[in-house]
Amino acid sequence: MILKNYKGFFFLVASLLMVITAFIQTGCGVYRFKDVSIPDTIKVVKVNIIQNKASYVNPSLAPKLTEALKQKIVSQTKMTQTNGDNADWEINCTITTYSFSTSGISNQRVNTNRLSVGVHIDIDDKRAQKVHKYDVSRSFDYSGSMALQQAEQSLESEMLRSLSDDIFNRIFSNW
């Protein structure tokens, strides 16, 4: 009877030690949440206004995407944003591709068109004195009967959400 109580006690102690060890190991070096990992030395970030250097320019995309990215960083990280020179990371993005193509034909008529957007990302890591470069791209299909301006309006919220998610995930998934 006493031996059974000792086995239960030892099992409880061993379980507690494993849980404590897990907490200690995840608390060192990098903090993580929502599948995001950021080196613990990075506390302040500067997100510069996204530049639009695509051959076709949607004038509202760059400023709105800049704000969407800033909001995503604020809501999903513990990082502080700055406009000054005290940033640990400076994020620079450029819209490099903004193009249209036909993606579906039915009965010899355009059935579906595709808008493709590409963004180049440079992260200037001031602490490591290193620049990380990434590219993301996303395609958005729309009805072949829509004019370009109609498609841009109807796709705007999806483009902002998807592109800011893709940029965010690309920046914060490699650590």
What would you say this structure looks like, in words?
This protein has 175 residues and is of the alpha/beta class. It folds into two domains: 1-33; 42-172, Double Stranded RNA Binding Domain. Helices cover 38% and strands 37% of the residues. The chain is built from three helices and eight strands. Strands 3, 4, 5, 6, 7 and 8 form a six-stranded mixed sheet that branches. Strand 1 and strand 2 form a beta hairpin. Helix 2 (61-76) packs parallel to helix 3 (148-172). The protein is elongated and about 60 Å long. It starts with a helix and ends with a helix. InterPro entries: LPS_assembly_LptE.
Instruction: Assess the beta-strand content as a share of residues.
Output: 35-45%
Helix content: 25-40%
Number of strands: 8
Q: Name the CATH superfamily assignment of the largest domain.
A: Lipoprotein like domain
**Mean pLDDT, all residues:** 83
> Can you tell me the overall shape?
elongated
CATH class of the largest domain: Alpha Beta
Class from helix and strand fractions: alpha/beta
Largest sheet: 6 strands, mixed
Under the CATH scheme, the architecture of the largest domain is 2-Layer Sandwich
Radius of gyration, CA atoms, in whole angstroms: 23 Å
CATH topology of the largest domain: Double Stranded RNA Binding Domain
- H/E topology pattern: HEEEEHEEEEH
Provide keyphrases for this structure:
38% helix; six-stranded mixed β-sheet; alpha/beta; single chain; 175 residues; 8 strands; 3 helices; 2 domains; two-stranded antiparallel sheet
